User: Fold this.
Amino acid sequence: MLLRDELRISKPLAAMLLVGTALLLLMGCAVADISDIGTTPSNTPSSAPSSVASTQPPTLTSTGLIVPESVAEAMAANATPFTLRQPGMNVIDVNLADAADLVHGVHDDGTVVTITQPGDYRLYGSLQGQVVVSCKDGLFNLILDGVTIISDTPGALLVTSGDEVVLHLADNSSNSIQDGLGDAPLDADAPNAAIHSVANLGITGTGALNVTGAIDGIASTDGLLIADGQLKVSAGDDALRGKDYLVVAGGTLTLDAAGDAMKSTHDSDATRGYVWISGSQIIAQAGTDCVDAMSDVLVSGGQATLACGDDGLHGEVLVLVDDGVLNITRSYEGLEAPVVVVAGGVINIVSSDDALNAAGGDGSDAPDVPGVGAPANRPGGSGRPGGTGGGPGGSSEDPTKYMLLISGGTLTVDAGGDGLDSNGYMTISGGDTTVYGPTNQGNGALDSSGLTLTGGKLFAVGESGMAEGPTQATQAWIGVIFDAAAASTITITDTTDAALTWSFTIPKSSQCLVFSNPQLLSGRSYSITVNAALIGEVTAF
Assistant:
C-alpha cells in the first residue's frame, strides 16, 4: 500500500483545455450552458453557453494522494508474499484412520492427530476429530491425498504454531474438511475457520479440496496464498481470510459465503491488509463484500464472476484493476475505495447503487442483508464498516482525498445509482468506458467534484437531473439531453464524414448522453439519431 502523501500519475498530462458542456435539446436543437444541466426541461430552448466558472480539479501535485497506475507499482509498496516450499524426498505417510503407531512427530489420541515435528507428511483416510500442527518453529508440507476430516468444533485442520504450512492437493485426489460451532462460546482468539492457521498458509496442487466452515472457511492470522487447486468453500461468515494478505494466484475457486468471500484484515501496518488476485478462475457469492481489504484490492489476472450483497471489491485505501476479466453480476456498489483505478482488463458491473465509487465512509447507506452477520457465538464478527455512496452532486468531504482514474481496459457498468462516482476528482485518460446510468433523477451517469478528460472512449447515459460533463478536456466530447426509451439505438454521425459513426443500444431509458472518442473532432458537427430518427445536431467541444 502506497503512502498517500502526494498525487503521482506517471504519465504527464497535456495542458488542460477548459470547456463547458454542450447539450442538444429536443425542441429547437439549442445548446445549453453547463449551469442548465439538470434544470433546463428537455422541451425548452436555452441560450448558447457563456464562460464557465466551475470548480476545477487541482493540479496533479496538490491533492495529497499517490495514485499508482499498475498492480506492480502498488505491490512495490506492499509486503512481499511468502514463497511456497515444495516437499522433499522424505515424506511421512499418516493414515488418519489409524495414526497411533507412527514414527515420532505424530501423536494420535483417538480424535486429535497432532504433528509436532517440521517436515513433509502425506495425509490420507478419514478422521472424526482434528488434525493439529503444533511446533514453535518450522516449515511443514501436508500432502492431502484423499482426506476427510470432520470436527464438531472450529478448526478441523488447525495450525497452532509454526512458521509456514503448505497444503499440497495430490493429483487426482478429493479431500474434504468440515467443522462445527461446538457448544462453548468462542473468545476473540479462538480458532474460527474449518482450516485455521496462525502461520503463513499456502494451498497448491491439482487435486480437489472441499471446505465447509461453520464460521469461516479457510483463514490465516498471517498470510494466505492460493497458488493452485480445485477449491470449493462454503462458510457461515467469510470464505477466505488472510490477516496480513490474501493472494489468489491460480486454481479454480468456488466460494459461497454468508459474509465476505475474500478478505484481509490487517489494519496496523500500511504494507499489509491487502487482497491480490493475479490468476485463478473464481465464482463467488457473498452476503456482504465479495472482496474486502483493509488496504488495497488488486486485480492483475484471472477471471472472476461475483454476486455480492454489498460491494464487489472494497478497499479501505485502493482498488486497482490492470488485467483479467471481472464480472460483477450483483452488488450494492461495484468497486469502492478512496482511490479507484481501472488501468486494464475487462470489467462488467451491475450495481444497485454506484458502480464505481471513489469514497470512504462507515457503511450507513449500505443495505441490510437479512441473515448475514457474525454467528451468535462469535464475538463481533469480522466485517468491516461499509462505504457510502457519493450522493447527488458529489460530497461535502474534502475532495482531495478521493480519485477515480480510468486509464485503460474495457469497462461496462449498469448502475442503479451513479455510474462513475468520485467524492473527489475523476480522470479518464484511456480505455473504453460504457456507462448505463440511473433511471432516477437523484443520480447521474457521472458524478464528481471535477472530471478531467484526456483520452479514451466514453459513452455514458443516464437521467438528466444530475447530469455532468468534463470540466477540463484535451479530447473532444459532446453532451446531449434527450429522451430515449429502453432498447433504443443511439447513433452519432460526423456530418462531414458519414463513415465516422458510432451506435449504441441502451438497456434502459435515458435522458442524458456524454460521449467522447479519439476520432471526435472539436468544432465538428455531429448528428444524433434515436432509432434512426434524427433529433438534431450538436457541435463537439
Observations:
- Residues 71-75 form the longest helix (5 residues).
